[in-house]
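Now for a concrete sample entry.
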Amino acid sequence: MTKSRVRLAVLGSAAVLAASALAPVQSAGAHPAAAAGQKQWVALGDSYTAGVIRAAGDTFEVPRDGCDRTDRSYPQVVDRDLGGLFELVNVSCGAATIANVTDTPQNPIGRHLPPISEDPDYPFPAIPPQSEAVGTDTDVITVGVGGNTLGFAEFLTKCAQLGAEQDGQGTPCKDSLAPDVPDRLKTAREQYDRMLTVLHTRAPKAKILTVGYPTVIPQDASKCSFGDLTQFGTITQGDLAWLRTDVLEPLNKAIEDSTGTQDAAGFVDLYTSSRNHSVCDDTKWVEGFVTLPDQLSVVHPNTLGHRNAADHIEEALLNTLS
């Protein structure tokens, strides 16, 4: 493998490790009561809800809790659009797992990613499970989570490393990790079911809307250029196709199926509407490993992606009023 390939793999791996660490939460239980005529809406989820990256806006919490929500993430966009109808409590947090939503405290690390970056506010106190932000007065819950439980950042890191070693040929990541995927999906589905049960118990009158993940990888993986860090770096096209069909699409299906069996109010599909706006499309709604000139974006939605999510979630929220 050439030195340039190795460097791309290292950069790609560092970016993906940053993805799992760049993290957002208002302290649970500290939210205001909804005003007269408003419904209390609690937004739960991981970085695809929280925003996290600069391409999804600026962080706004003072003092910081290490979770770095951004002001153009979809909960904040919806809040500006529908604030007269819903009182938002946004406790989403980057790098959150399903367990962190359900009952496991999280230790945010902000942007402390040595040797890549040092966060002057690190370390941050642990934050409570996100479910503690909901209660008997909660009217609507949106929740977008599951990718970190499945280990998507781990997949991207390993695929970039193996793809560089193979100089972009074949499906080395699929060959290495495919046997683990069914068990990972089974675990994610079981934990998702339990999470919805806990949310129903804590907020018995709330309508729960589950939010799926957008299209990240195009249907035609040949759109993606090997070695391009604004896309997927050194992940092979074969492995990208496998990640789409055997990892990401089944995760969305597991979330949707859990929504139906656990009597949630509805599943918000972001995948279909974003199909032509993947990391490798001309008008992308999800950034690649980096955003030029020098920003780590680590495969997260940008402002366009969050605007699309907001459009669909607004429609679902308004439907809960009828």
